[in-house]
Design brief:
The chain is α/β, with parallel strands linked by helices and 307 residues long. The protein has two domains: 2-175, 3-Layer(aba) Sandwich (Rossmann fold); 182-305, Beta-Lactamase (2-Layer Sandwich). Helix content is 42%, strand content 26%. It has nine helices and eleven strands. It has helices at residues 16-25, 30-34, 64-72, 95-111, 133-145, 164-175, 182-195, 220-243, 282-305, and strands at 2-10, 42-49, 53-60, 82-88, 118-123, 154-159, 199-204, 209-214, 250-254, 257-266, 269-278. The strands form two sheets. The protein has a six-stranded mixed beta sheet. Strands 8-7-11-10-9 form a five-stranded antiparallel beta sheet, sandwiched between helices. α7 (182-195) packs antiparallel against α9 (282-305). The longest helix has 24 residues, at 220-243. It is globular and about 65 Å long. The protein starts with a strand and ends with a helix. The chain binds guanosine-5'-triphosphate and magnesium ion. Guanosine-5'-triphosphate (GTP) binds at residues 10, 12-18, 33-34, 36, 38-39, 61-63, 123-124, 126, 160-162.
């Protein structure tokens, strides 16, 4: 297996360790997170991605005394594959300190020729704050202050432990670029067209989003909210199936729309494909299931070429 180094940095209390726990557990983690102590220096954990990569996570405790240690010894940042920077968007008082620290780290990353995008998470962007004017203005103003230069490209996310889909999207952004999924993306697009679907998402059994495709809808705030909630339900379900070791093959929900989730086992990997579509006749549902069945071959092809 290939090793990857993923760093998560930011000031103390930004929510780094909480996010790692929330992403790993997906439900019933709130108590654990509420009582978290500050991370002492660096906490290491690792994560197997598709049985091909061992992703080593460096959760860099952000208290001042630890930051000083890292800045004095930049080697900590050598050979970083993915760099995530957390900014607590609720804490206005610490924003400028956070930007300063970020800029010091950028200098170090530049010296080590860090080459991927820098991922910036505006964290604690909780669902109830989504239309909060102060927070939105703060995000805009921080973005302006962060100096993008010829060395780096930034990618921004708004994340919260109260919406796991936001965390999954942030981490998936890096991981799903490791494999070329363009063929699968086209297939999902085709499925959406054929069944007039709203969206189709391919997950790993640890909740990484490998490929997703959304039908474009103009009324996007409401639509986005619906998609987020749907992804959160999928992520919790997929995690529970794993935690409780439940036999599962497929599931169709007939609400006001059809929701179809199917599990695939390809070699040692487990995947789930989800599609939401408007109500359809029984024959069409059967056709949808046949199409999902065929998708197994497409997965097989991608993963036999990549292993
Ligand atoms: N409202 C809100 N609170 C959060 C969120 N994420 C984390 N927190 C809270 O923020 C506090 C600090 O979180 P930690 O994960 O310990 O922060 P950290 O960045 O790891 O801090 P250090 O280890 O000192 O660097 C915890 O009490 C969490 O409950 C979030 O998305 N929203
Ligand atoms: Mg921590």
């Amino acid at each position: 297996m290939k090793s990857l180094k993923l760093i998560i940095a930011g000031l103390d209390y930004a929510g780094k360790t909480s996010s790692i726990i929330a992403l790993r557990e997906k439900y019933n983690f709130y108590e654990k997170v509420e009582n978290l102590k500050p991370t002492v220096k660096i906490e290491y954990s690792s994560f197997n991605f598709l049985n091909q990569w061992e992703v080593n996570i460096w959760d860099m405790g952000g208290q001042e005394k630890y930051r000083q240690i890292y800045l004095d010894k930049p080697e900590y940042f050598a050979d970083t594959n993915y760099f995530y920077y957390y900014i607590d968007i609720q804490d206005e008082k610490k924003i400028s300190e956070s930007i300063n620290y970020f800029e010091e780290l950028l200098t170090i990353l530049k010296d080590f020729n860090y080459s991927n995008k820098i991922i910036i998470c505006f964290h604690k962007y909780d669902p109830k704050l989504r239309r909060n004017k102060d927070i939105l203005e703060r995000i805009t103003s921080v973005k302006k202050k962060l100096k993008q230069n010829e060395h780096f490209e930034f990618k921004f996310f708004r994340t919260s432990i109260f919406d796991i889909s936001t965390l999954s999207k942030a981490i998936s952004y890096s991981l799903n670029s490791l494999i070329d999924f363009s063929v699968l993306k086209l297939i999902l697009k085709g499925l959406i067209r054929k069944f007039n679907g709203n969206y189709a998402i391919l997950y790993t059994d640890s909740g990484v989003i490998l490929v997703d495709f959304y039908k474009e809808i103009l009324d996007s705030i409401e639509y986005e909210e619906k998609v987020r909630q749907s992804i959160n339900r999928d992520l919790v379900l997929i995690q529970k199936l794993k935690d409780d070791n439940v036999e599962f093959n497929e599931r169709v929900d007939y609400d006001e729309e059809i929701k179809y989730l199917k599990k695939y086992e390809i070699g040692d990997n487990i995947f789930f494909l989800k599609m939401n579509a408007p109500k359809m006749r029984e024959e069409k549902i059967q056709l949808l299931k046949n199409n999902f069945q065929n998708f197994e071959n497409d997965l097989q092809e991608i993963f036999s070429n990549n292993s």
